[in-house]
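Take a protein:
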Amino acid sequence: MTEPVFYHWMVAPVVIPLVAAMCCLLAGKSLLSVRRLLGLGGITASLAAAIYMFVMAWDGTIFTYGLGEWPMPYGIVFVLDRLSATMVLLTNVLALFAYLYGLSGDDEEGAFFHFLFLMQITGINGAFLTGDMFNLFVFFEILLLTAYVLAVYGGGADRLKGGMRYVFLNLIGSALFLIGVGVLYGITGTLNMADMAVKAAQVGPGDAMMLKAGAFLMMVVFSMKAAIFPLYFWLPKAYASVTAPVAAIYAIMTKVGVYALIRTTILIFGDDRGFVTGLLDDYLLPLALLTLVMGTIGVAAARSLRLMVAYMVIASVGTILVGVGLYTPDGLSGSLYYMVHSTLISAGLFLLADMILNERGGSKDRLEPGPVMPNIVLLGMTFMIAMIIAAGLPPMSGFLGKVFILSAAADTRWHELAWIVMLTGSFFTLVAAARAGSMLFWKTNTAPAGERTRAQRYLPVAGILLVLLLWVGFAGPISEHMDRTAAQAFETSNYIQAVMGGGQ
């Protein structure tokens, strides 16, 4: 079996930011410029590796990398297919934009920002690449431990309250995850996802209830990570209170939960899996619609811009899971297209909200009359473009993503309800965006304004908006790639053969 060039780069998106994080830690508290250089170099190198791996997986080949060269299913394995390659690339693109924004001053609020940020990227990349259930737990814990600290980074009562809520709920989730993994291991005798899919289909009636119990525990945990109704209440305050670059990278955190749901429900609990066949088929889509409704209500009721964006994250998760819940290649393809859009625009809006907050002085980002901002024209134009993209007005990427999802639902019993909920959600999001714009940029008073935004802070936001405009301009080839990615995800026999047979 011939190994591709740079075959060992399959672990690079995990190893590179991990090594860079350790170097930042060794650099000490006084060498800020060195930490910035190490962090930027690490993220750039990780992005380069992600691009190369995306190219590797482009033709549909599934690559596996057994750590320590242990035979399957005993060793830990990384699996690279179109889906994991797409998610790793999205993570590293987002990380670069968020980190560049952090270099404009947010990293000066604490000595360990660079270390924590890089460890966060390590955990997220690892979660997308691993093919082992326990290793997924390990990477979840890496990204969550750093998220706990980043949640209170910079101090303040609001961050402490939001962070404690975030920590408490996710500690419960981690405990349930460990119990669920233990139950599944006890029944199937394996932690390898591909092997677990095979063993789940062979479980007899006597162990069926325990298998279902373990499976549902895992689904509850992934739903909590994804912020699905009714397990989303921890997210708004936590996301709205953290610093801007942290909130931006948090935009991909819910997608880790979505990815875990996609991977496990299709691979392990999908078709022909015995007593756990179609485990969430009857539940996920209704919960997705409820999540979208509650997120939209939160967007309409929010009294601050950052809180409004946090609820938009919840609404976007609902929209993504509508397509996933159809459990068809077309539905998943539309969800993947929309997932990239929603992740990037949510991150961009968190960064933009921070710029507005700093220019409004004491009014901060509250949706109430405030002072005239020093950069009101430039900020206003940027806000308008970002909100048009976020609300899903045609022909923007959000609109196209929703069209793809609704088209996939056309021949299902959820067609009418999905249309009503998604279009109503878009309408109220647009109304909320118009209200926010009016409060922030038109209804002004004579209160003293804040500081003028540094020019370098516009660059990451502009970069995100440019990527989203390109997402529309190249919608044809991108949607074709997502079609192939979704089709490959549903070809579970190929995944199992690649892992258990040694892969490429």
The two ends are 7 Å apart (CA to CA). Residues 281-473 form one domain. DSSP finds 20 helices and four strands in the chain. The mean pLDDT is 90.
